[in-house]
Amino acid sequence: MAAERPLDGRVALVAGGSGGIGRALSRRLAAAGAAVAVSYATNAAAAGEVRREIVSTGQRAVALGADLRRADALEALVAGEAGLHGLTHYLARRLAPHGVTVNAIAPALITDTGMLPADRGDLHRLVPVGRLGRPDEVADLALAVITNAYVTNQVLSVDGGTHPR
Ligand SMILES: NC(=O)c1ccc[n+]([C@@H]2O[C@H](COP(=O)([O-])OP(=O)(O)OC[C@H]3O[C@@H](n4cnc5c(N)ncnc54)[C@H](OP(=O)(O)O)[C@@H]3O)[C@@H](O)[C@H]2O)c1
Hints:
The longest helix has 15 residues, at 81-95. A three-stranded parallel sheet has the order 1-2-3, covered by helices on one side. The protein has a two-stranded parallel ribbon with strand order 4-5. It is built from five helices and five strands, in the order E-H-E-H-E-H-H-E-H-E. It has helices at 20-31, 44-55, 72-78, 81-95, 135-146, and strands at 11-14, 35-40, 61-65, 104-107, 155-158. With 165 residues, it is an alpha/beta fold. It has a single domain (11-158), classed as NAD(P)-binding Rossmann-like Domain (Rossmann fold, 3-Layer(aba) Sandwich), CATH 3.40.50. NADP nicotinamide-adenine-dinucleotide phosphate (NAP) binds next to helix 1. The site of NADP nicotinamide-adenine-dinucleotide phosphate (NAP) has 24 residues, from helix 1.
């Protein structure tokens, strides 16, 4: 039972929980036992739908509106992908002795998200595996990382082999 619900008693905050990847991650975390705070910037309806879906499974969830652009100091630190990766490494080294893991996931060309144009055209041709990725594939990796205390200080790609590291 514990292995099936490894996050029982834990609380997860999913920034961007109203979006494509955040929605999939919110569902995955709730299924693993976490109470989930589904954060959104503008789309309260989408966040509310995710909250209702989770609550209907018997799990706890709230929808929280928060415009993270207003966290000016944080934005200055993490502006750009390289900054976010640097922040991941900085925090991971400092928090590891306290039992806190810090990792980043770098997705690319994931369907059912606001990041991709409605007309995908030949985008899949850019991906070595020959197709676009799915939000649940990002969520699966995130859950594996979150529940593994020996994985920290990593930037992990979910991109069908587009960007070798
Ligand atoms: N999909 C891809 O192929 C891809 C590629 C590279 C990186 N990513 C990254 O993956 C993450 C998830 O994006 P997604 O693909 O799921 O895209 P998405 O469907 O467009 O979702 C974006 C999410 O971010 C929230 N958001 C936007 N601006 C915000 C702000 N100022 N404060 C707080 N929340 C804000 C949105 O909230 P509202 O809905 O309320 O506006 C939404 O929940 C993003 O960091 C994105 O950069 C995705």
